[in-house]
Amino acid sequence: MEVILKDDVKGLGYKNDLVTVKAGFGRNYLLPQGLAVLADKTNKKIVAENVRQAAHKADKVKGDAQAVADKIGDTVVDLPAKVGESGRIFGRVTTLQLADALKAKGIDVDRKRLSFDQEPGSVGEYTATLDLHREVKHKVRFNVVSE
Question: Quick check: 20 and 1 in contact, CB under 8 A?
Fold first, then answer.
């Protein structure tokens, strides 16, 4: 089943992408949630026109995303966590904590756009990927430290 995404769907594609999905996923999730429309002839023409008109706006959005990535640069953030004697953390370190730590440094990012490359389980240095735009992804380094 071919659908046109109306919004970014993590792991599937970005807004206005034409993607092929299994029929059940499209019928039972994407269409009812309003995340996609069927990719028929009419909808393809509408999306093509919308993309053409929004091309200059897309350059601005990409520029803004690149500016945020440049602002982060090589910044390393410290995330405090409760740690046992063996160095293992109690509980979890979440993307919300990382987003809050970045916000404290003056960089406002959405926690939903952050994903850990490796789930933090002990004290040490880790990286997370910040998906700012379909063409702009940035690695954010952070340290998990003892409270």
Answer: yes
